[in-house]
């Protein structure tokens, strides 16, 4: 497969970036998208050029490291997959592929296709946890009876890998889906009830401080999320927030 | 940080003011519809609405506040949302994951705002001048004639029809999504959202019918 790649190149956060065009040949349909970029980088290194920098880690779709806006969509045109799970068979010989970093003021570009997603970490740190005594007398979580539906919904919310595709897809660069998943996974469980009020207020405050946009319910985040995190989580977070505010 | 400064509070405020305006639209449509089959009823209701103290002194200011609040908040949200992505994508495929109407509420909203300017110029300002500046004596039979006269012009009728198309686009996303914004997401949500989509088409279509009815019948 022969492809034309248009890739965002930017030396560092302070320099101005630009799209650069590369030709690549010999790409197999069974390669993952990241393997295709590995081939490109080998080419560039052999030519003495600087390789394209991009985030990756597990390459199994569970770590949330890989990102990339591919042909206008986060993680590319396939559904429920991360970029590392995207296969080149989704593209045709002779295609032009536009590859950009996730764009959001709260995700500044570090270099090339790598963005700083530590704003997500700070939202988590603001309340995405429960206080559990771990000094040796921890109660087994399974000892607490939990309604099956709640356990399932909490689990689905917890499958969010924090990749940032929701922000990248949203026309407002809103982080509501991510934040709501992190709020929901605790809000649905008895262990999360104690800090429920502070959690949602602090996480939403941090989300706003980071400069993410407002949700306008376009639903793009849910469609592009590699884990299929549901919009229902956003409605739940809104309820949790209103309930927290009404408690004062 | 005040409640209205948080993103969720703003979202809920937009939804609630929008729901209020949706209710008003239904009431406005019902009254206007009477003009197509009973000029007397239309005159009677219009006279009541134009002279009743509760409507004039309380409901009307609340409505005007609701309209201004919805628009101002809409612009505030738009500015904030644009600043959340200062560098745009070279390629952004919005159609792959969302509808055009959901992404362009600001444009349909601005079109409705422009229409409101025309609508106020046509009906509200002359009404205020007639009642409170010229202090004309109350005339319970004038409303139907004033309405019909406005729709003689094909240009004005065309502008009204166009505005109602934008209204339908705006409501099609706005009404249904307001339930999500206020956190209403249970087993009734799907049916309610279907009703909202129907309402979003039916009410503006009804307004189009009324405008065309008077244009072609007089």
Automatic annotation (TrEMBL), chain A:
Cofactor details (free text): Binds 1 [2Fe-2S] cluster.
- Which UniProt keywords are given for this protein, alphabetically ordered? 2Fe-2S, 3Fe-4S, 4Fe-4S, Iron, Iron-sulfur, Metal-binding, Oxidoreductase
Cell membrane as UniProt keyword = no
Q: Which GO terms describe its biological process?
A: respiratory electron transport chain; tricarboxylic acid cycle
In the Enzyme Commission scheme, what number(s) does this protein have?
Answer: 1.3.5.1
Keyword Oxidoreductase part of the UniProt annotation: yes
Q: Tell me the Pfam families matching this sequence.
A: Fer2_3 (PF13085), Fer4_7 (PF12838)
- Cofactor(s) in the UniProt record: [2Fe-2S] cluster; [3Fe-4S] cluster; [4Fe-4S] cluster
User: Which reaction is recorded as catalysed by this protein?
Assistant: a quinone + succinate = fumarate + a quinol
Residues annotated as domain 4Fe-4S ferredoxin-type: 151-181
Annotated 2Fe-2S ferredoxin-type domain residues: 1-103
- PROSITE patterns attached to this UniProt entry: 2FE2S_FER_1, 2FE2S_FER_2, 4FE4S_FER_2
Provide the GO MF annotations for this entry: 2 iron, 2 sulfur cluster binding; 3 iron, 4 sulfur cluster binding; 4 iron, 4 sulfur cluster binding; electron transfer activity; metal ion binding; succinate dehydrogenase (quinone) activity
Which top class of enzyme applies to this chain?
A: oxidoreductase
Q: Which family, according to the similarity comment? A: Belongs to the succinate dehydrogenase/fumarate reductase iron-sulfur protein family.
Q: What is this protein called?
A: Succinate dehydrogenase iron-sulfur subunit
Recorded source organism is: Leeuwenhoekiella aequorea
TrEMBL record, chain B:
Q: Does the keyword Cell inner membrane apply?
A: no
Keyword Membrane belongs to the record:
yes
Q: Which GO terms describe its cellular component?
A: membrane
Annotated keywords: Membrane, Transmembrane, Transmembrane helix
TM regions (residue ranges): 12-33, 53-79, 100-121, 157-177, 198-216
Q: Cite the InterPro entries for this sequence.
A: Cytochrome_b-558, SQR/QFR_C/D
CDD domains of this UniProt entry?
Answer: SQR_TypeB_2_TM (cd03498)
Task: Give the signal sequence positions.
Answer: none
Gene3D superfamilies linked to this entry: Fumarate reductase/succinate dehydrogenase, transmembrane subunit
NCBIfam families reported in the protein's UniProt record: sdhC_b558_fam (TIGR02046)
* Protein name, per record: Succinate dehydrogenase / fumarate reductase cytochrome b subunit
Tell me what organism the protein belongs to: Leeuwenhoekiella aequorea
In the record, what lineage is assigned to the organism producing the protein? Answer: Bacteria, Pseudomonadati, Bacteroidota, Flavobacteriia, Flavobacteriales
